[in-house]
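Minimal example, chain plus S-adenosylmethionine.
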Amino acid sequence: MILHEPVLRVETVEQLAPAGRGLIVDCTVGTGGHTAALLEAGATRVLGLDRDAEVLPLARERLAVWKDRVELVHADYRHLDAVLERRGIDQIDGALADLGHSSVQLDAEGRGFSFRRPDPLDMRMDRSQGQTLIELLDDVTPTTLADVIFEYGEERHSRRIARAIVAARDRSDLSTTADLAAVIRRSVPYRGHSRIHPATRTFQALRIWVNHELDGLDEFLRTVARRLKTGTRLAVISFHSLEDRIVKYTLRELERGGELAMRVLTRKPIRPGRDEVVRNPRARSAKLRAAERVS
Ligand SMILES: C[S@@+](CC[C@H](N)C(=O)[O-])C[C@H]1O[C@@H](n2cnc3c(N)ncnc32)[C@H](O)[C@@H]1O
């Protein structure tokens, strides 16, 4: 099993300071890279959540040596309250959310996250529920699709791309991710050597749409804040500006107070160093923000 090094591993562990011991919730456990680092650094116990049941066996294998200190749960982090209540847990000693999808999901055959291979148009992180990409595309209008691609992909050619996708759907020319990538590539003006594939932004947008990734992110952060003991911390890693904006503003609002005061520890987000980006190009857009519960 080849598992990538978790993004901003050292920096995340530093922010969470698990030397304080106790229960850390890894809200996006994935294949367990960050959880392993937290356990190595002294966290007593980790409760790991992931909405993708298919990654949990990989996490279980990676974390086998700590199996008495880890519990893995198939759950959406937006249901954190219910997960904690079911276990009789009131307060926690730290939480991490490493948002978005993982490289394991991207590379997994048959999931539909990658445009580099002909896969079914699914893209759901949780294959036990929700609509697949092809189901959503089935009755979408070009205007709605253009809005999705513009808003979630920040793609300036959103209208052309949306029209081309809907036309291909109507001709029944869209059955795999490779078809979709080809339609997108043909619909945008040739840009010579671009750093990224012309379908990158649209695939990001469609993934966010299928998985409702931005919905409830702010409420989830408030829930974590309520659950943290005084003096303990939350760390969040995001991979695109839409997500990062929500994290930044929600943490700032929590800092301004009310009954739940948090102190933001990262005025500017922590970014990976050059070495990490060379080792792991996916880290290039990562931003880590952290906050501490102060009352
Ligand atoms: C970037 S990966 C995490 C990688 C992990 N930190 C590691 O070291 O292996 C993000 C993970 O979050 C999961 N995820 C995304 N949205 C989620 C949600 N709303 N609730 C729970 N898990 C979610 C994805 O399925 C994916 O496995």
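The domain at 110-211 is CATH 1.10.150.170 (DNA polymerase; domain 1). The longest strand covers residues 228-238.
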